[in-house]
Amino acid sequence: MQDPNEDTEWNDILRDFGILPPKDEPKDETEEMVLRLQKEAEVKPYERMTLKELSEAEDDFDEDDMKALEMYRQQRLQEWKILQKRQKYGDLREISGEQYVKEVTNAQKDVWVVIHLYRSSIPLCLLVNQHLSLLARKFPEIKFIKAIVNSCIQNYHDGCLPTIFVYRNGQIKGRFIGVTECGGTNLKLEELEWKLAQVGAIETDLEESPKQNITDMMMSSVRNASIHDTSCASRDNDETKCYSHRNF
Predict the structure, then answer these.
(1) In terms of pLDDT, which residue wins out, 150 or 243?
(2) CB 16: neighbour CB atoms within 10 A?
(3) CA 218 – CA 15 distance, rounded (Å)
(4) 3-state SS, residue 239
(5) What are the Cα distances from residue 117, in Å, to 54, 141, 166, 176?
């Protein structure tokens, strides 16, 4: 019996009269694969929409779309909340002593606050401010603050500067007082980041403590040994004035 799909003149005549069915055209596997990939990669329209657009377009979706829409809406809402929380601050703000209790001690619940008490005549204080400005951009969920020390504590000795306090929920979680504790005169950004991570204020991507400049640390220790014995003897009282019994 003759193959009805065979390419012959007689079969073509029979097809024209409807005696034979139309010839099966060979499938283009490449075209099929492209169409399948396009379908798989098709993005639902609501995945491109904002929360406002999602609300306005609800009437255009069927039941299955509405279920997916609600899941997607919740996902977008959670992402938005996380983004808002992370982008709450983002810069190093200056406050006065009168604002200390409000901005630091009574800061929003569960917010980490890093405050630097400084004097502009001390080079290391200026360096710490530069580093904190960069860290504030990197960790916008953390509240970074600076304040001129005299506006917070009267007669605070230069030997105790820079002074960095780390707060959470009104409690001191970390403190770095003086050149040595703050990391030395050649303090690197990564070293300050590591210090803040060690007290829990930030989640750093640093895997280990940056290499310290041992020579600088030794020089700082020798240079400050004498003044720490005399000028910082009343440091505890100064700290108490600053964060325990402040009455601005």
Answers:
(1) 150
(2) 9
(3) 99
(4) helix
(5) 48, 21, 11, 10
Residues paired with residue 93 on neighbouring β-strands, in sequence order = 145
SS3 of 17, please?
coil
pLDDT digit string, tens, across residues 186-205: 999 999 999 999 999 999 98
56, pLDDT greater than 90: no
Helix axes 189-198, 123-138, angle to 10 degrees: 70
Q: Which amino acid is at 138?
A: K
Phi first, then psi, for residue 35 (nearest 5°) are -65, -40
Query: Which of 115, 190, 118, 205 lies closest to 160 in space, CA to CA?
Result: 118
- Classify residue 145 as exposed, middle or buried by CB count within 10 Å of its CB (0-12, 13-18, 19+): buried
Element (H, E) at 92: strand 92-94
**How far is the C-alpha of 111 from the C-alpha of 246, rounded, in Å?**
20
Q: What is the pTM of this model?
A: 0.57
| Helix, strand or coil, per DSSP, at residue 130 | helix
**Torsion sign, CA atoms 75, 79, 82, 84:** negative
Torsion angle of the four alpha carbons 237, 129, 191, 211, in this order, in degrees rounded to the nearest 10: -110
- pLDDT bin (cut points 50, 70, 90) of residue 245 is very low
Per-chain mean pLDDT for the chain: 78
Can you give the C-alpha Rg of the chain in angstroms?
34
CB 183 within 8 A of CB 191: yes
Exposed, middle or buried by CB within 10 Å (0-12, 13-18, 19+), for 246? middle
